[in-house]
Specification:
Blueprint (H helix, E strand, L loop, with lengths): L1 E6 L3 E9 L5 E8 L1 H11 L4 E8 L2 H12 L2 E9 L6 E6 L5 E6 L15 H5 L1 E7 L8 H14 L3 E5 L10 H12 L4 E5 H8 L4 H11 L4 E5 L5 E5 L2 E5 L12 H15 L9 H18 L12 H11 L1
Parallel strand pairs: 1-4, 1-8, 2-6, 4-5, 8-9, 9-10, 10-11
Antiparallel strand pairs: 2-3, 6-7, 11-12, 12-13
Helix pairs in contact: 1-8, 6-7, 8-9, 9-10
The structure holds adenosine-5'-triphosphate.
The site of adenosine-5'-triphosphate has 22 residues, from helix 8 and helix 9.
Length: 320
């Protein structure tokens, strides 16, 4: 039995790291991406986790597998492809600090995950099955993702969903929207950013947009993250805004993933059952997730920036 099993993309981001003595750009390899970052947060907080996905049978793939194991994530569901390389992405910093991503994924190993390679038993042994949208940008990984979702549903495994847009990875924006919405049919707990809410619903108003998704997809909990401003939530027993923490932010990479990992950790403490949760308890859980994510923005990267439970509790208890 695992607390959380996640399926999705696993790749290496190369982020700018200054110049060499020759004046050429240097890049630092940052292993992970959303589903792995969520699991690494949970594993750091002592939850049992396993990852399902595909990397190349190459040095980058080995590095990714090792990274997961080093962070306490089970890799029995990780497949090493002989034919296709590990997916890579290069990050470029634009003027003003915005980042752009250049993906080396045509195809990359993560999107050639086949449905028969999905360890269905692993999915069905989980208390929560977690997925995102980037494993649904292409076939055969989309069918593999849907197979895992159907397996989770068949055993009433709770499903958490964190869609990500990344326009460059989709055939078109309408394809992205349609597929992201398709994923919502399976979700119990949904996390979106405010931009993703607007993209999927056309609505900027948090109350209106979250109500629309909540009702249309019969969701149990909707979390809309708002960067430094915290999070808006909607839940059967209430809705509201939980303010973020003021910290010395240096890098927001993966803040949403640390937030969701910390939220799922709190949810597991309530026996992963939303029926047992009161609105005030949910607010406390979100506040804790805000604390974890805020601390994560005070260090560089995603996985290396995950705080310890003690550090998070200290910040959280200062407010609570
Ligand atoms: P990503 O795609 O980078 O993982 P996201 O867009 O899903 O992130 P954000 O809304 O940027 O997520 O941030 C997630 C959470 O992280 C917020 O709800 C908040 O708790 C925390 N957070 C983000 N930025 C800051 C910040 N500058 N200061 C404090 N907390 C922050």
């Amino acid at each position: 039995m695992y607390d959380v099993v996640a399926l999705g993309e696993l790749l290496i981001d190369f982020t700018p790291a200054g110049k060499s003595a020759n004046g050429n750009d240097l890049f630092e390899s940052n292993p992970g991406r959303a589903p792995a970052n969520v699991l690494a947060t949970l594993a750091k907080f002592h939850a049992t986790t396993a990852f399902i996905g595909k990397v190349g049978k190459d040095q980058f793939g080995s590095f990714l597998g090792e990274t997961l194991r080093k962070n306490g994530i089970d890799t029995q569901g990780l497949i090493y492809s002989k034919g296709v390389n590990t997916t890579l992405a290069f990050v470029h910093l634009k003027e003003g600090g915005d980042r752009s991503f250049q993906f080396y994924r045509s195809p990359g190993a993560d999107i050639i995950l086949q449905e028969q390679e999905v360890d269905v038993e692993l999915v069905q042994q989980a208390k929560i099955f977690h997925f995102g949208s980037l494993s649904m940008t292409h076939e055969p990984a989309k069918t593999a993702t849907l197979k895992a979702l159907q397996a989770a549903k068949a055993k009433s495994v709770l499903i958490s969903y964190d869609p990500n847009l990344r326009p460059a990875l989709w055939e078109s924006l309408s394809h992205a929207k349609e597929t992201i919405l398709e994923g919502m049919q399976y979700a119990d707990i949904l996390k979106l950013s405010d931009e993703e809410l607007e993209f999927t619903t056309g609505m900027r108003d948090l109350e209106e947009g979250s109500r629309f998704l909540f009702e249309k997809f019969d969701l149990k909990i909707v979390l809309i993250t708002l960067g430094a401003k915290g999070c808006f939530y909607r839940f059967g027993k209430g809705k509201g805004h939980i303010a973020g923490f003021q910290v010395d932010t240096i890098d927001t990479t993966g803040a949403g993933d640390l937030f969701f990992g910390a939220f799922l950790h709190q949810f597991l403490q309530k026996d992963a059952s939303w029926e047992a949760i009161q609105a005030e308890e949910l607010e406390t859980m979100i506040l804790f997730a805000n604390a974890v994510a805020a601390l994560g923005t005070t260090k560089k990267g995603a996985i290396p920036a995950i705080p310890s439970l003690d550090e998070a509790r200290q910040l959280f208890e200062g407010r609570n």
